[in-house]
Specification:
Layout: E1 6-9, E2 18-31, H1 34-37, H2 43-49, E3 57-66, E4 69-73, H3 80-83, H4 91-100, E5 101-104, H5 111-117, E6 125-129, H6 135-138, E7 148-152, H7 153-159, E8 180-184, E9 187-188, E10 199-202, E11 209-213, E12 222-228, E13 231-236, E14 314-322, E15 325-333, E16 340-344, H8 356-363, E17 370-375, H9 394-412, E18 416-421, H10 423-434, E19 439-445, H11 451-468, H12 472-481, H13 489-501, H14 511-523
Parallel strand pairs: 4-6, 6-7, 7-8, 16-17, 16-18, 18-19
Antiparallel strand pairs: 1-2, 2-3, 2-5, 3-4, 9-10, 10-11, 11-12, 12-13, 14-15, 15-17
Length: 554
């Protein structure tokens, strides 16, 4: 057996509808590291050329003991996939599946054997809910001929589009004779406890199991919210990727192993579960980032014991809404247990998400921090917001920073280190002064402490450099605008351009080369081009949006 069985029991008090939630594993899978961690290589290039595999990751199934019967969330991987040479398609498609993943599924890793370890048989299962229909979620279907199978109607429609096998859907192992399929559609809801979701499906009819649409990995992917007295847990068919590690030993069959007390709900890679903090229910967030591997994927499977999700390798891009402004962040880390680091860009007006490759090459921040890259209002991907140019002022941007820090503290249960650059350092410092409880440390780089003095210094630097180089054009233009303040855009641009040309922004670079490098980084960032036009990048798994305008105070 390949991974631990974890379970959660209700505490003292009147019994609720949900008696227990357990997670079992139907084997392990190894995939190409380009799949979970992302790459700029085209899908089929890395799929055909990669020589590396991730450490084994368990393929999990969630077992819910409910007053209305035994319910499964997903069904794992079929052992026939490693014992039957004809399980996968033939030809080129079969070769691609062989390149994509390799499985280790022992005799004791079947769904039947795993249920037996909990004291159940497949015949005891009344309902099985499929988060989506990829191979590592439908493997137990042949053993569930007596169960009602619930699948989102949108996911069922994906199955019947042309070429399902090339998109990860093995139709011959899904549409089996004798199975009782039920296509379900979420209904509008105004339940404030389900916000920000506006649609849901009450699976059991008592509010204890709420199926929520979370499209992204596939068009019909869904997550399950398990609500119990005083707490809730969310199971998502595809959670964030987890970094490798040897799976723990499994307890002997028939014995249950309780999860640690502080982790009351089991957490898995393919059905991530998070325990709520006291007095508040944990909810799955809408997941709209397609898989980095494109469409031929084995699904997200992770490794390690049940956890609260803090040990995951994450690369998440999502919108955050502050009042009427929608802004974008990207969160990246080799391990989400690392300290939070929020980067506040210079400008204002310069994007940050597009700078991820440069920061990674220069500093490797993601090895030591959970890094939050943020395109502030009016720039980068946040420029897509319909009100992108509204309230572009210092107070609004400081307020945005406060709200983002509060959101991060709420999500990760700890304050963040904040690093700001130039004007971003000023914004970060002002937000820290207002909410020191949300900040672990402040790092200010090139902070604008005395604006008039900085402007005067930049002007004097540029003029002195022009004279030293005998650059008559620069001397003429700088003397024409005179000393600061430079309140007109033309005056400001003249000073900034010559200060940059003389190395005042970046040594060895001119104003044009700095602008050119910014433009190239933006064009190479997924999310800039319209959907469906991302050359060289298989999935919309990260990156920045459209270029924002702005310049530093050089």
């Amino acid at each position: 057996m390949s991974a631990s069985i974890a379970m959660s029991r209700t505490g003292p008090g009147p019994p609720g509808a949900v008696k227990a939630v357990s997670v079992v594993s139907t084997g392990t899978v190894q995939i190409r590291p380009e799949h979970p961690y992302g790459t700029r290589k085209p899908l089929y290039w890395w799929l055909l050329t990669s020589r590396r595999w991730t450490p084994p990751r368990p393929i999990n199934v969630y077992v819910i003991e409910h007053t209305k019967g035994l319910i499964l969330f997903d069904t794992g991987q079929d052992r026939a996939s490693v014992t039957d040479a004809a399980y996968f398609p033939g030809g080129v498609t079969g070769y691609l599946y062989d390149r994509l993943a390799r499985f280790d599924i022992g005799e004791d890793d079947t769904l039947t054997a795993q249920l037996a370890a909990l004291g159940y048989a497949p015949a005891d299962v009344g309902t099985a809910i499929l988060s989506h229909l990829h191979q590592d979620h439908i493997g137990g279907l042949p053993e569930l001929t007596g169960a009602d199978l619930l699948v989102p109607a949108a996911e069922w429609a994906e199955l019947h589009r042309p070429g399902p096998e090339l998109r990860g859907f093995l139709r011959s192992h899904i549409q089996l004779p004798g199975l009782k399929w039920h296509r379900v559609t979420p209904e509008p809801t105004r339940d404030p406890a389900l916000a920000p979701f506006t649609e849901s499906l009450d699976v059991a009819g008592d509010g204890s199991l709420m199926l929520l649409p979370t499209p992204g990995h596939t068009a019909g992917s869904a997550s399950l919210l398990v609500r119990r007295a005083g707490r809730a847990a969310a199971a998502a068919g595809r959670g964030p990727h987890l970094r490798g590690g040897d799976p723990p030993a499994r307890p002997a069959p028939g014995r249950r192993q309780p999860a640690p007390a502080r982790r009351e709900q089991p957490q898995g890679p393919c059905a991530a579960t998070a325990a709520a903090r006291p007095g508040r229910a944990a909810r799955p967030r809408p997941h709209r980032c397609p898989a980095a591997a494109g469409q031929l994927t084995p699904g997200g499977c992770g490794d390690g014991p049940p956890s609260n999700g803090d040990d995951m390798d994450i690369d998440l891009r999502k919108p955050v809404r502050f009042g009427e402004s929608t802004q974008w962040i990207r969160i990246r880390a080799a391990n989400a247990r690392k300290p939070l680091l929020l980067l506040v860009q210079m400008g204002p007006g310069l994007p940050m998400i597009n700078e991820i490759p440069a920061f990674d090459r220069a500093l490797s921040l993601e090895d030591d921090f959970t890094v939050i890259y943020w395109d502030q209002r009016g720039c980068g991907r946040s420029l897509r917001s319909t009100d992108a140019a509204r309230e572009l002022n210092l107070q609004a941007m400081v307020g945005d920073t406060e709200r983002l820090l509060a959101l991060l503290c709420d999500r990760f249960d700890r304050p963040a280190v904040v690093a700001g650059f130039s004007m971003g350092a000023t914004i970060a410092a002002l937000a820290t002064a207002r909410r020191p409880d949300l900040v672990a440390a402040l790092v200010a780089v090139g902070m604008d402490i005395d604006g008039p003095a900085a402007e005067s210094s930049a002007y004097q630097f540029a003029l002195a450099a022009a004279h030293a180089r005998h650059n008559r054009r620069a001397i003429r233009q700088l003397e024409a605008i005179g000393p600061p303040p430079h309140l007109e855009p033309r005056e400001f641009a003249t000073r900034a351009r010559w200060a940059a040309n003389f190395g005042g922004v970046r040594s060895g670079h001119t104003y044009n080369s700095v602008a050119r490098a910014l433009l190239v980084s933006l064009l190479r960032s997924p999310g800039l081009l319209p959907r469906g036009h991302r050359p060289g990048h298989p999935g919309d798994h990260g990156g920045a949006g459209r270029a924002g305008a702005g310049a530093g105070g050089a």
